[in-house]
Amino acid sequence: MEYSLFTKLAAEFFGTAILMIFGNGSVANVELKNTKGHHAGWLNIAMGYGFGVMFPVLMFGAVSGAHINPAMTLAQAIMGMFPWANVLPYIIAQLLGAALGQFIVYLTYYPHYKDTEDPEAILATFCTTDADNQKINYFLNEMFGTLVLVFGALCCLMDPWGEKDPAAAAIVVGFIVWGLVTSMGGPTGPGLNPARDLMPRLLHAILPIPHKGTSRWGEAWIPVVAPIVGAVIGAWLFVAFFA
Which Pfam families did the record assign (predicted)? Predict the structure, then answer.
């Protein structure tokens, strides 16, 4: 069944919002003071992001492809796998969805944002940073992480077994994200998605949060550009070897 562009955009909007609710919501649960899950650990965050990708792909994969990531959309368009006419509408829907999802996280954790005095913990619930404050490492981590994500996701979703059983493929994609956060997430978070970092960082800058500190705009280009570069390479590898 072919859905209208409006329906596809709605799927991208709500899918990206769900990603943020599960993903950054899990970070807020771990990092913010006095939550039930305070200091629950990195596996809690990895699980949140894994489910945050898995569920939208299960829900909307058959509708819009469930890109929920501007880097995925651009990479597929560059490789001739997605129409260029839909790129900008998809990205706008993803950005708006990311903003909505992050705002819901802010609303639901509002008392804990007021209780938390550590600006780094607050920032972590919105966007990524490099643990060692090195921009080169930041770029490389986000690039290679997104490369693995896009390459793995395309192999799962577009290989014959994935097309035959898209639900199983969506579950595996969720586990790819879960594994990436546990394995490559130490240096930066990771973001692996320009919308997941840019829009929450913007909300961090404008929302009234005590003790929030700086939004670190000087490095904000990295989790936007690096995932796009990695996604294009990952999509090229899929097309070159397996498409």
Answer: MIP
| Cβ neighbours, 10 Å, residue 80 | 11
State the pLDDT confidence band at 75, using cuts at 50, 70 and 90: very high
User: What was the pLDDT predicted at 58?
Assistant: 97
Residue 54 · residue 177 · CB < 8 Å: yes
Q: Which domains, from first to last, does the chain contain?
A: 5-242 (1.20.1080.10)
Of residues 140, 158, 180, 139, the one with CA closest to residue 235: 158
0.85 exceeded by pTM? yes
| Cβ neighbours of 159 (radius 10 Å) | 14
- Of 92, 26, 22, nearest to 58 by C-alpha is 22
Rounded Cα distance between 114 and 226, Å, is: 33
pLDDT tens, residue by residue, 104-140? 999 999 999 999 999 999 999 999 999 999 999 999 9
Distance of CA 19 to the CA centre of its chain: 7
The secondary structure of 184-224, three-state, reads HCCCCCCCCCHHHHHHHHHHHHHCCCCCCCCCCHHHCCHHH
User: In this predicted structure, what is the pLDDT of residue 122?
Assistant: 98
Contact (Cβ atoms closer than 8 angstroms) between residue 222 and residue 135: yes
Q: Cα(175)–Cα(241) distance, rounded to whole angstroms?
A: 23
The string of pLDDT tens digits covering residues 126-182 is 999 999 999 999 999 999 999 999 999 999 999 999 999 999 999 999 999 999 999
Please report how many Cα atoms fall inside a 13 Å half-sphere around the Cα of residue 184, on the Cβ side.
Answer: 21
List all residues 6 or more positions away from 131 whose beta carbon is below 8 Å from its beta carbon: 186, 187, 188
